[in-house]
Amino acid sequence: MRKGQFLSGVGRCAVVALAFGAAAWPVMAEARPRILTPMSAHAVLQRDRPIIVEGVADAGERVTVTLGEQGADAVADRQGRWRATLPAMAAGGAALTLTATGKDGAVDRMDDLLIGDVWLCSGQSNMEYPTKQALNGEGLVAMSADDHIRLLDMAHHVGLSADEMLEKRPVWAAASPASVANFSAACYLMVKDLAARSKVPMGAIDSSWGGTKILPWIAGDDARKLPGLAADADLLALYARDHAAGLRSFGDRWGEWWRTASGTRRGQEPWNAPDRLTWAPVPKFGPWEAWGVPALADYNGLVWFRQGFDLPSAPSGDGMIELAGIDELDTVWINGVVVGATFGWGDWRRYTVPRAALKKGRNEIVVGLGDTYGPGGMFGPADKIQFTPAGGPPIPLGTGWRYSVYKRDDQSYPRSPWESHAGLGTLYNGMIAPLGPIGLKGVAWYQGESDVGRADYGDRLAALMTGWRRQFQNPDLPFLIVQLANFGAPPVKVADSGWAALRETQRLAVLRDPHAALATTIDIGVRNDIHPADKNELARRLVFAEQHLMAGDRANASGPMIASATRTEGAVVLRFTGVQGALHAWSAAAPIGFELCDASACRYANATVNGAEVRLADARPGDVRVRYAWADAPVVNFYDEAPHPVVPFETAITGD
User: Which residues touch 452 (CB under 8 Å, ≥6 apart)?
Assistant: First the structure.
């Protein structure tokens, strides 16, 4: 997976930027005009849509933009920002050069641009999953050279606001073994298929980050409108303006949470009164699961860590604390003052400690370390854990740490809205907004594993689509939503399933959106690997959805989908849309995985199939709903003739 830029605590260097639309704008005088949108040379520009070019120049400077035989003028505003809009162009033809010419003939240029279709692919690790690791990855990479397929890989980057400038701009590259190997397999294989079908150049943008929730990908203005998130939006804005003030406010949240959870008074929190907890020596740096402590053998939750250091005199300035690698959520107090809060799986922690937080004599460090999945702890190495006072040598902190366990599986502690994986709009700001208002053919979205259990995921997905359509200036921008794959042990009895519930929210979100389609992966997962390698079949289903959606055939774009469940003559009859040919049970006389549910419980149901209908003959008068493939990793054998599996669902029974 890609390693990119990361944001942490108050030690983060400030980047000065100006807001203008959704692009990132440096505040500087330029010796020549500078093109910022599109991102670089070798790009593909979306056909049949106006081409927006943005950049910076001297205030008031007139800039002439040309692309092939097309041209437009723009004038930089008082902040040096300019935007020019060129007419829509058809696909094909020779590579073009984009120029921006200012005063005295100064020119910025981007060469080797193609006109075709551009796809944005985003989500978490199954979208990020590299081509070299996919099924037949070695052969796919070896045969990937194609100058008419261009790839743009957005580095991991956390942004505090949508106008934040990228410190390093990514570069478009033609498809080749070097560029394809680590590029998103699902995205590359999809555009490769589309290029073969359409015979036009294809651009693919991979902007994904493993393990992320959906919230960081939602534009801040849209996230703010979601229930319960206005306060987080305010805190993020405060932190962007003033890191220290934002940390103080975040510390207040911790105080309110602790006092409510523990029933203690102000001043009795662990960072203010650590002696109120029971402490034990940290056996070693590394995952606490490997300490040999039974209570921590498979522990997810909050663990407190404690250490201290002495200063021989009053500090002369800010200090720096380095805690080395930590997994995964840390909030750090020194003498009761919050100095940093970060998310990261083993990422290095380094925080500026304000002079006002330090004192002559003993200084107390308290770390609240939360872990939600897998190994957690302070990973070291010990010789890199230290505090450096202003003007003085580092003070080693690699020994003498103590720990105190909070509550098993209690993850109710506060999380900062500026973190990468669960923050508010932070990845939209850092990895989507910098693309500017480029034209797109569509978006492929594969995410949701990290949001299993969120009943409001559908609302968040709708908010994401709204904000991205606004940025890319296309209210009808198509979205292809990948439904979660099967993962885990196959079911041996009827049970509730968080994964099935998340799939259902994805299905319903697609049904509510006239420009979205679903690609189900319920049969291509691997029970013991959350990252199935068969991205080839996934790409084929994405292309199927795209072809039907673009042709205006939305009813067939998502494959076989439940249309109705009607009680008829003592049975329940299910009707499906999107069926290619007829429905068939594979390797059995009947399809499996159907459930009938009354108001209190569900049970497996016997099914018979006829064309695009299914009959559940053992229905009872009290049954109110039907479920299909309702498990984390259901076994399915029900397909149409495409062949595509029937999309998992839950639906109410209507009729007498």
Answer: 484, 498, 499, 501, 502
pLDDT at 361 over 90: yes
Strand order in the sheet with 280-281: 280-281, 402-408, 301-311, 361-371, 329-334, 337-343
Closest by CA to 205, choosing from 462, 479, 470, 442, is 442
CA gap 465, 402 in Å, rounded:
46
**pLDDT tens figures, 428-443:** 999 999 999 999 999 9
Structure confidence by residue, pLDDT tens digits, 220-256: 999 999 999 999 999 999 999 999 999 999 999 999 9
Cβ(30)–Cβ(56) under 8 Å? Answer: yes
Taking the alpha carbons of 202, 205, 210, 214 in that order, is the dihedral positive or negative? Answer: negative
Q: Which stretches of 340-481 are DSSP H helices? A: 426-427, 457-471
3-state secondary structure of 161: coil
Cα–Cα distance, 110 to 108 (Å, whole number): 7
- Predicted confidence band of residue 32 (pLDDT cuts 50, 70, 90): confident
How many C-beta atoms surround the C-beta of residue 588 within 10 A? 9
User: 437 and 473 in contact (C-beta within 8 Å)?
Assistant: yes
Amino acid present at 365:
I
Write out the H or E segment, with its range, that includes residue 74. strand 70-75
Q: Name the nearest CA neighbour of 103 among 78, 73, 83, 79.
A: 73
What pTM does this model have?
Answer: 0.93
